[in-house]
Amino acid sequence: MQTRSEGLASDNTAGCETVSVMARFVPGAASVMRGVASLLLVVTAAGCRQDMHDQPSYSALEKSSFFPDGSSARPPVAGTVARGQLRDDALLYTGKQGEEQAAVFPFPIDEQVMARGRERFDIYCSPCHSRTGEGNGMIVERGFTRPPTLIHQRYRDLPPGHFFEIITNGFGAMPDHAAQIEPADRWAIIAYIRALQLAGGATIDDVPPAERGRLGQ
Ligand code: HEC
Question: Which of 6, 53, 106, 214 could disulfide-pair with 91, CB 3.0 to 4.6 Å?
Answer without folding.
Answer: 106
